[in-house]
Amino acid sequence: MGISRRTLLKTAVLAPVVSSLGLRSCPPGGVGPPPKDAGHFDVIIIGTGFGATVAATKLALEKGKKNILMLERGVWWNSPERPLPDYLKTLPEDQLKKELQYWPRPDHRKGVIDLLNKVRTNNPVVEAFRSIAGLPQPLYRYNSFDEIDILTASGVGGGSLIYSNVTIAPHFDPGVNRFPVMEGWPLPLAPQDYKDAVKWMTDHRGAPVQVVTKFPMPEANYPHRDQFLEDNPYLYLGRSRWLKEAAKALQSDPQWGQKRVQDWKPLDLQIIEYPDNSTPDLNKKTFCERQGRCFLGCLPGARHTLNKTLARGGVENLLSGPNPPVQLQSLADVNRIERFNGGYKVFYDNLHVDDFDPERKKFVSAPVVILASGVLGTTELLLRSEGDNFRFSDKLGRQFSTNGDSAGFVTYSSPFPYGISATRGPINTSHVMYADGNLFINVEDAGIPAMLASAVKGAIDAFVNATNRDAFFRDMKALWKLTGADRLPLDPNNPRAFDTEQETLQNTFFFNVMGRDAARGRFTLNELGQLTLSFEGGPLSKDPVFKRIDDLMHAMSKAMGHNGQYVRFPFWGRIGFLGNEYNPERKVVTVHPLGGCPMGNSATDGVVDTKGRVFKATPDATGAVYDGLYVMDASVIPGPLAVNPTLTIVAYALKIADSIP
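^ that's the sequence the OP posted. Answer follows.
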C-alpha cells in the first residue's frame, strides 16, 4: 500500500522547512565525521525494555556471557524520594548530570508543564523550535501518524517506566485448551509459558500483587479478605468498586449479559504492597501509596521498573561489581546495522555531545545482536538497515496492531453514592473480560494523575457541551488554561468553588479497554527517511472492534444508572468532529503497539522465525536466517492480545533467549 496523499502533502511541505532548519532529511549516519570504532562485544542488545532485560539476565546469569553491551537512547529516571542505586553512585558527577533525570513531579495542574517538557514528538519542525529552549531528555515519545497516535517510553527500563504495571495473560479457553487470540499463530503460547514469565517477573523484579482497596489489607489481619470486602464494599477504591458493580449490573443486559468470559477480578500488578517479603533491600520500606501517577513515575518508588532490575546488586549484579557482565551505554541513539564477516556493526549517535563533535558518531560490533527497542524502534531500525546484501522479508513493517486500545468516561452531574475518585490508586486495579464472537474485549478501570485532573475535567465538559455554543467556548477556555477553578466564583458557601484535584474527578469513571483488532497496519519510510504508518483494507477507525468496544462501554455505563453520562474519549476526535457522538472517522491512540516484525514459519509470512532469528529474503523464501541476529520485543507478536501485553512479551522473550547458543 502506498503512502497516503496526506503523508505526501506533509512531506512536500516539510521537506524545504526541514532542509532550511538544518535537520536530517535522510537516514541518520550520513553527516559529519566518520564513525569511531567503540569496541567489540560478545553480544549487543539494542534497548533496555522487557525483551532486552530478559535477554541480559538470561545470557549473563544463565549462559555465562561476560561481555554484553546494552545500548539505550534515553537516560536514567529516578524519584527524588528514593536513594540512587549503587551503580549510579559510581558514575562521575559530570556524567551523572547528563544521564540522570527525575520524574515529572508537581502533583497538581502546574505539573503539566513539567510533563510536557518531557515529551518528544516525531514532528521535526515542532522539535526544531522546542530544542531552542534546551529541553530535557524525553521520558515519552509521542508519535503522530495519519490515523493513529502512539505513545512510547524513552529511558533506561523502556516501557516499564510508563506502563501501568499489569501482569496478565490473554483469555484462555479451557474448552479448546488454548488462548483463542493466538489461533493460527506460528508459535502460540501455552499456560506453562506464562507461568515461566511470572516466575521471571518474580525472580528479577518482585512478586505480583493486587491493589483494589484504599489502604493495604494484609492477609494475616483479614484471613477471609474477599468475603470481608464483600461485606464492607466501602473499603474498595471507588473505581475498583464501580467496575465490579457495573459488571454485575450488566448481567441483565440482553446484548452483553451472556458474553462475559471472565468475572471481575483484581489485576496482578508489578508493584510493592505492604507488607512485602519478596524484594531486595533496595525496595524495602516503601509500598504503593495510591497516588494515581504510575505512568508519570512513582514518587515512593513502589513500582518494579526495569531500571531497578538492571542497576541493583544481589542476584542480578549485571552492571555492578569488579567485572560486571553487562555494560550499558545510555544516550546512544542507534540508527543502522551492517553485516560484516565477523557478525554485525551497530552504528549509533552519542547524544552526550553535539552533532559535529568527533565523538558523536560511533559503532560497535558483535557476532550476536538482539533488537529489543520496541515496535517502532526495531521496525524502523531494520527498515533503515536494508541494503543489497542485507535484505529482509516483505513482511517487515506489516501486521501492526493497536491491540484494540480504547478509552472512555462515565461522568455524573450529581454526586455518585460513593466517591469514584479517578485520581486515587494505581493506574489500573481490576478488570472483566467479554467475547463478542472472535472480538475479545478486556475492560479495566483506569486512573488519572492529579496533575491532569483539571485538564481532563475541562475536556469532558467541553465535549459534552459541544452543542451549546456558550458552554462550549466557556469550557474550551477552561481547558486551555488547564484549570476549571476560574469557572466558579471564589464563594466559601459553594462546596465546588475550591475543588481539589481529587474532588474534580470524584464523580468520574475512566475506562481502559483493549480488544482484538485486525492487525492491518504497515510501517514504511518516506522520502525524508521518517517512519510512516498506513492501514491496508480501509481506515483503521472502521475496524469493527472499536464500535463494539464503544457499545460495551455505553451499555455498562447505562447499566449502572444514577443518570451517568457516557463520554467518548475527547482526544480521539479529529478537528471538525467535536462532540460526544460516535465518530467512525476518529483518530485512534494506542499505548500497546504490537507487530511490525511478525513471527512466521518462513520469510513469506514473517520477519523472524519461532526462535526470533531474522529471516533472509531469498528468492525461494526458504527458512534461511541471519545467524546471530534476533528480535526480542513486542514487534514479533503477530496479532492483538486484547490484554496488556507485558507478560506475553516476557514469555516470548524467554523462549527466544533459551534458543540463543
